[in-house]
């Protein structure tokens, strides 16, 4: 499984892009998106998903 970003809740702060260890988060169009094929859910790198832990809006970075 991978994570996704709820576009309608995204504030476009960019925090998630810089914290993603697999480089799966990119700014496209008007919001950030997770490239599902690249997302590793931070497995093997962190105990928690970094996108969700740094996002200022609760439940914006969620399992896909």
UniProtKB/TrEMBL annotation:
InterPro entries, per database record: 4Fe4S_Fe-S-bd, 4Fe4S_Fe_S_CS
Keyword entries, A-Z: 4Fe-4S, Electron transport, Iron, Iron-sulfur, Metal-binding, Transport
Pfam entry (one): Fer4_10
GO molecular function: 4 iron, 4 sulfur cluster binding; metal ion binding
Domain of life: Bacteria
Keyword Transmembrane applies: no
Known cofactor(s): [4Fe-4S] cluster
Domain 4Fe-4S ferredoxin-type: 1-30
Designated name of the protein: Ferredoxin
